[in-house]
Amino acid sequence: MESCFIKNMYDLNETIAADLFAGADYPWEVLGKIKDFIIELGNSLDPERFEKRGETIWVAKSAEVAPTACLNGPLIIDEEAQIRHCAFIRGSAIVGKGAVIGNSTELKNVVIFNGVQVPHYNYVGDSILGYKSHMGAGSITSNVKSDKTLVTVKNGSQQIQTGLKKFGAMLGDFVEVGCNSVLNPGTVVGRHTNIYPLSMVRGVVTAHSIYKNKNEIVTKED
User: Fold this and answer.
1) pLDDT tens digit sequence for 11-24
2) Which contacts (CB < 8 Å, 24+ apart) does range 150-158 have?
């Protein structure tokens, strides 16, 4: 599944967490490493640019954090990010430069690349959102299967056993997810793909596509 390789999904120049992906082929391989990586990276950040809050929270001095937001570590919020009213960050989260985490949005064990927007009532857990990807209002990542079995990434007849019980979605750079969509466990969406509103997505969606429903996925025209 070359389409799911990190190099085919993400511009690692657009995240403070680039070193997290070193040695991995698929993005979900780093989910279990996010917590420790944040602590290691956080302790190396420039105190002139980042304020340390408590033991494991680093917030860029240029970031905007609403007083009603709830921040739990380990957490890094990069420069010029916005954490808006009543956002809830449960921990093990990296929020990229200029990213927007909006009203009542919840994050847990995630890497949010630069310029990402999850601005309205979103849940993003055990997921990686690529550069300038956007989740419409009410769209969520479902990160645990209903039968609690381990997550398999499926692309037609191809399958990869991840060994993970918790796995939300891997969104490539510039992905647009329509309002009130559900990205089921093990969803992988390639770069520059659009997901229609009210979609229920499962498996691999190739880059440069428009996902209308599971039976209608079309290639974008140039």
Assistant:
1) 999 999 999 999 99
2) 151/185, 151/186, 152/186, 153/1, 153/4, 153/26, 153/28, 153/186, 153/188, 153/203, 153/204, 154/186, 154/202, 154/203, 154/204, 155/1, 155/3, 155/4, 155/188, 155/203, 155/204, 158/1
Which pTM was predicted? 0.97
Q: Which tens digits make up the pLDDT trace of 103-141?
A: 999 999 999 999 999 999 999 999 999 999 999 999 999
